[in-house]
Amino acid sequence: MTLTSFGPANRIKRSAETHPLTWRLRDDGEAVWLDEYQAKNGYAAARKAFADMAQDDIVQTVKDAGLKGRGGAGFPTGVKWGLMPKDESINIRYLLCNADEMEPNTWKDRMLMEQLPHLLIEGMLISARALKTYRGYIFLRGEYTTAAKHLNRAVEEAKAAGLLGKNILGSGFDFELFVHTGAGRYICGEETALINSLEGRRANPRSKPPFPAAVGVWGKPTCVNNVETLCNVPAIIADGVDWYKSLAREGSEDMGTKLMGFSGKVKNPGLWELPFGVTGRELFEDYAGGMRDGFKLKCWQPGGAGTGFLLPEHLDAQMYAGGIAKVGTRMGTGLAMAVDDSVNMVSLLRNMEEFFSRESCGFCTPCRDGLPWSVKLLRAIENGEGQAGDIETLLGLVGFLGPGKTFCAHAPGAVEPLGSAIKYFRPEFEAGIAPTSAVVPPLARPIVVGA
User: Fold this and answer.
1) The NADH-ubiquinone oxidoreductase 51kDa subunit iron-sulphur binding domain covers which part of the protein (predicted)?
2) Same domain, 41 and 102
3) Which end of the chain is more exposed for a tag (fewer CB within 10 A), N or C?
């Protein structure tokens, strides 16, 4: 994994003024432990928040900065914090860090946790102070063993330094923090499924309302934020709202910087901290270096497997939520994938839908039965055994599993790339229809789920 600077070809050095998330990174890729972190102004923001700011002022500052969730949904963080109850008699509240990073093609949170564990802890400490939460959990993807080891060590260092535990910084405020490794389920990225899993239940999403801010972990008020989201908090508190907003490019409606990346057969696959509003072309050409010799860009996804495919002409879109929405899909996690011209889109989609089908919690019928149905049809088309009407059936499934049709957002995210692939590359799907097949009415073909 690489992480380069703001400017192409490392022309600009990372600094605290331009790279709030990554300026403390070591060149050798090793973790930054407590002494080095504090030498690089670590926990200064926490000390400021505890000594000079009222709890409600911290919430308002984050809200004014325009910080939005970095896990893919993009909900305003300050607004989410404001949903927590104001009633001082509710003395048991929880802060959860969603570190379940299971989105295919996404690894940004892993880098932060492995190399800057104290940045996440400081972000959670300030957030806990603002939200009056006395206990926090980092719900970590089970496969991230190095991140677990580094986070646990950093938690112990912070405890020994009086930055976690009882009477933090002499303020009378107590905050305990625990690292909880999950069992490796994609659905745990949904905040209420994460809560169920943390409680020892099956990882099914819950119905909302009530929202976690009212009824969360063990029935108590709970706030759930993503790793990268929480890691933005110290810089906002330390350097202020105006500075944070100034980091984004002109035209961007999202503030600050974002960890973005490109994978696939590009010359320089990697991860970079960039201002919101850079174009996909800058990300692809200046940072990822374009396609490797002998390969041509066929299409790309802007932010993980659950986002729609875009064409090369869409690279001029600005990388922020509204900019990507203008070309027909979502920003997602901001880690893009290049698909080269050697890839068959039917095979790619069959592989993706197998993953999404397997990761469904099985709670609601459209997702539980519809995703295996799509896999069955795609496998037949891939093998040249598709029947007339299969493409229409797939498009019908895209509609039946779309936003608002299922219990959570798993299925809509799963079928978004399928719908866009058929839109842009329908001839590849048509090529898998057997020439002698009879016309079968849409949605009439019998499917054996799990076959």
Assistant:
1) 346-391
2) yes
3) C
Bridge partners of 291, per DSSP, are: 266
406 assigned to some structural domain: yes
* Mean pLDDT, the chain, integer: 91
In the numeric block, which tokens belong to residue 359? 């990761």
CATH number at residue 275: 3.10.20.600
Task: Give residue 377's domain range.
Answer: 345-430
| Cβ contact 118:33 at 8 Å | yes
- Give just the sign of the alpha carbon dihedral 252, 114, 193, 357: positive
Tell me, yes or no, whether 325 and 359 share the same domain.
Answer: no
Cβ(230)–Cβ(124) below 8 Å: yes
CA distances from 17 to 21, 22, 126, 326 (A): 10, 11, 20, 30
Q: Which helix (H) or strand (E) holds 417?
A: helix 410-430
Q: How far is CA 375 from the centre of its chain?
A: 25
State how beta strands 257-263 and 270-275 pair. antiparallel
Domain count, the chain: 3
Q: Find, among 337, 266, 342, the residue nearest to 305 by Cα.
A: 337
Q: What is the pLDDT of residues 27-82, one digit of tens each?
A: 999 999 999 999 999 999 999 999 999 999 999 999 999 999 998 888 999 999 99
Contacts 24+ apart (CB under 8 A), 325-330: 328/420, 329/301, 329/302, 329/416, 329/420, 330/72, 330/302, 330/303, 330/306, 330/416
Helices (H), 174-226: 191-198
Are both 128 and 149 inside the same structural domain? yes
How confident is residue 9, by pLDDT bands cut at 50, 70 and 90? very low
Residues 360 and 315 in one domain: no
DSSP conformation class of 252? -
Residues above pLDDT 90, as percent of the chain: 82
CATH number (domain holding residue 382): 1.20.1440.230
Within-domain flag for 75: yes
Q: Where are the alpha helices (DSSP H) in 326-405?
A: 345-359, 365-382, 390-400
262 shares its domain with 184: no
The helices-and-strands tally (H runs, E runs) of the chain is: 16, 9
164: domain CATH number is: 3.40.50.11540
Specify the pTM.
Answer: 0.91
Contact 307, 338 (CB under 8 A): no
